[in-house]
Design brief:
By secondary structure, the protein is an alpha/beta fold. The chain folds into two domains: 278 residues, P-loop containing nucleotide triphosphate hydrolases (Rossmann fold), CATH 3.40.50; 258 residues, Rossmann fold (3-Layer(aba) Sandwich). The structure holds glutamine.
């Protein structure tokens, strides 16, 4: 008997009509259904912009920079992918035009094209196809590729051409095209309009792509009549027009919406994975918790860019995940740190808050406001969780107000501080001097040894060594360690590249004695929380915040 060679199947998802339809969430939801069928899924985002990666982009423009285990600075859609799928992404999951072109140009400079004329087709499209196929392999059943932007965007064309060619090369049985469109309801006419979706599919057909499946974003579910019309004019089978109406409570309801319409069965049939059951148990249980919280808890998040919904996406998600697991709904109050700094009545803003969180950040603006919030948390025994800059800030606040080092600071905020309790890491000094800022921070996953078994940190992690992701240049200055410890601040997590030389270890987690919950980490635990498996530090923080609200002892 001959066994069939393993072929990775591909799903390519494009978007039409308008942006901001939640394409990333749709892709991630499809991925979750496949994972629930026991398939080994990988997922990637193809972004047509020219930045090599989003690491140097302003959060206002691009939202949060998401970091993978292997240190890629990526689009925040990868965060959705990991949270929905529960499968870690890697560098291969993020592909921008900038990265593709820079690789093609490097090859050209290295003479790899044997003196030929280098062109978008075939060289750029080949490079794109290579990165899509690169994610597949014997260990992978399905690769999902989300094409960023909207059909018709000039910069997206090489990607469209590449996926068209890919289907031709690997065969239509191995590649499914899914097109996500917007189907608007025109209030004045009282009608749902299918024309923009028809035009979008026409645009796709012009470049040789015929979608197999249409996902229709609309305010409400579409009638059979509207779906039949879309099927006829978009040339898609009637049962392959899928509704994606706004969900009432949470984005985590989207996989359920797709499951109810049997999308998993359609895809399984199309790709040759029939006969598998799609186990929605854990997912349904989690969504059940989101729908029926027993109480609320109020968490203040103090940072810059706070008004931008997506600037701290993973942080707000992690707070929510932890809240669900306590059967709570988190009421997240976003406090602009600069306002806390300038407002005389700043303390008013912190009253009624059950827990304070300072997330990661860069630069001086609003920094003193963060220190104010941290001092309030420490002195009033309000639970505090600090992430990355939030740990550095907690150390600075402690130095100034407990150790009596009034001018203590990070050299990021004041190069000339007499007490640089936070300094540039040794390995980063030359990089900062050379001004080479893209992709050069301490990035990705590092092991962290939990230093004290009796600590809250150890209790929460319930492990001696954990792995967390990083994105920073500055670090706690070990010269001050003894002073802090003598005053009650404990270093409970350390990165120890050489266990025989503790002096070269890096401080990763701190916590305060005699406080209901005052814990901060140099890492970004928010990149590892999922709704089904909330992060232990966030869980501990939310639990402590709720105890404070209820006036219960710690
Ligand atoms: N600006 C700080 C550093 O580079 C913190 C970075 C962060 O919060 N991601 O070390």
């Amino acid at each position: 008997m001959t066994t069939r060679p393993h072929t990775t199947k591909h799903i390519v998802i494009t978007g039409g009509v308008v942006s901001s339809l939640g394409k990333g969430i749709a892709c991630a939801s499809i991925g979750r259904l496949l994972v629930n069928m026991g398939l080994r899924v990988r997922i990637q985002k193809l972004d047509p912009y020219l930045n090599v990666d989003p690491g140097t982009m302003n959060p206002f423009q691009h939202g949060e920079v998401y970091v993978t285990d292997d240190g890629a600075e990526t689009d925040l859609d990868l965060g959705h992918y990991e949270r929905f799928l529960g499968v870690p992404c890697s560098k291969l999951s993020t592909v921008t035009s900038g990265r593709i072109y820079s690789s093609v140009i490097q090859k050209e400079r290295a003479g790899k094209y044997n003196g030929g004329t280098v062109q978008v087709i075939p060289h750029v499209t080949d490079e794109i196809k290579g990165t899509i196929r690169g994610l597949g392999g014997p260990e992978v059943d399905v690769v999902i590729s989300e094409v960023g932007g909207t059909v018709g965007d000039i910069e997206g064309l090489p990607f469209m051409e590449a996926v068209r060619q890919l289907r031709h090369e690997i065969g239509s049985q191995n590649l499914v095209f899914v097109h996500l469109v917007y189907v608007p309801f025109i209030k004045a006419a009282g009608e749902i309009k299918t024309k923009p979706a028809q035009h979008s599919v026409q645009k796709l057909r012009e470049i040789g792509i015929v979608p197999d499946l249409l996902l229709c974003r609309a305010e409400k579910a579409l009638s059979k009549g509207v779906k039949d019309k879309l099927a006829l004019f978009c040339n898609v089978d009637q049962d392959k027009v899928i509704d994606l109406p706004d969900v009432p409570t949470s984005i985590y309801e989207v996989p359920q919406v797709l499951h109810k319409q049997g999308l998993h069965e359609i895809l399984a049939r199309r790709m040759g994975f029939e006969g598998r059951t799609c186990d929605m148990h854990a997912w349904d249980l989690m969504v059940g918790h989101i729908r029926k919280p027993k109480d609320t808890v109020t968490i203040a998040m103090v940072g810059k860019y706070i008004d931008h919904q997506d600037a701290y996406k993973s942080v707000t998600e992690s707070i929510d995940h932890a809240a669900y697991s306590h059967l709570l709904k988190a009421n997240i109050v976003r406090l602009e740190s600069e306002a806390l700094e300038k407002d005389e009545a700043w303390a008013e803003r912190l009253k009624g808050i059950d827990g304070i969180l300072v997330p990661g950040g860069f630069g001086k603006r609003g920094f003193e406001g963060k220190l104010r919030a941290i001092r309030w948390a420490r002195e009033n025994k309000v639970p505090y969780l600090g992430l990355c800059l939030g740990m550095q800030a907690a150390c600075i606040e402690f130095a100034r107000n407990v150790l009596g080092l009034a001018e203590a600071n990070s050299t990021e905020m004041n190069e000339k501080t007499p007490h640089p309790v936070i300094t540039v890491m040794e390995s980063q000094k030359d990089i900062v001097a050379a001004g080479n800022l893209g992709g050069t921070m301490r990035l990705g996953a590092y092991p962290c040894t939990i230093a004290r078994r009796s600590s809250r940190t150890h209790k929460l992690y319930a492990a001696d060594v954990v792995s967390e992701r990083h994105r920073h240049r500055w670090e706690f200055n070990n010269a001050y360690r003894a002073q802090y410890e003598a005053a009650g601040l404990q270093f409970t997590g350390l990165f120890m590249p050489d266990p025989t030389r503790p002096e070269v270890s890096l401080v990763e987690v701190i916590e305060l004695k005699d406080h209901p919950f005052f814990l901060a980490t140099q890492a970004h635990p928010e990149f590892q929380s999922t709704p089904v498996k909330p992060h232990p530090l966030f869980r501990g923080f939310l639990g402590a915040a709720y105890k404070r609200k209820k006036g219960e002892p710690e």
